[in-house]
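Standup notes
- DV: blocked on the single-chain target, sequence here:
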Amino acid sequence: MGSISFLWVFVYVYIVQPVHPLPLVLYGGPICCFIVYFALGSALQQDKLKEHIPIRLYIIATCLMLVISCAEAYFLMERNDSLTGIGLKPSAVLFSVCMCLILYSDRCAANYSENTVSKQLCNLGRYSYGIYLLHMYCLSVLHKLIVKTGYEITSFRLFWWAAYTFVVLLLSYILLRIAKKINPKVSRLCLGV
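- DV (later): unblocked, structure below
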C-alpha cells in the first residue's frame, strides 16, 4: 500500500509536472497520495513494525531521508525555477514515514518526559491537521505579498524555502489560535482544533 503513495508522487513530480503541471488539489488530493499513512497506522496499531526494527535504524533512516529531501527540494527548485510545489515529493513521503516510525515507537514513548520542548511538540501536534488545512492559503497570500513588493528570490533558495516554511507554519498556527478563540465549536468542526 505504501508504495502506491510513493509511486503516485514520483510519477507526478518527475514525469507529469515537467510537461503539464497540475493544481495541487488534483495531484495532492487523491487518496492514493496519502494511503501510506493509513497502512502505516494499521501496521503500528497491530505492533507489526515496532518490535522488529531497532530505533537506531529508524533514526538513521529519518536523518538520511531529511538530507535526501533537502537535496531533492534544491534540485526541484532549480529545475522549476520556483520555490513552490516542492512540499510533496517522494523523499518527503519517505521522511514522513520514518518520522512516524520514530514518534510511535515504544522506546520514544518510554523516554517521553514532560518539558518545554515536548509540550510545544504536543501543542503543534494538536494543531497539525488545521495547519495542514490552512497552509496553502497562507502560502498563497505570502507569495502574493512578495510578488507585489517586486522582490525576486535569486539566491539562497534553500534558505528562502526554509524561511517560507517557518512563516507559513507560524501564520497557520496563529490563524488557528484566533479561530479557536472566536468560535471553538466551528473551529473544532472545520479545522480540527
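- Follow-up: Residues 116-149 form the longest helix (34 residues).
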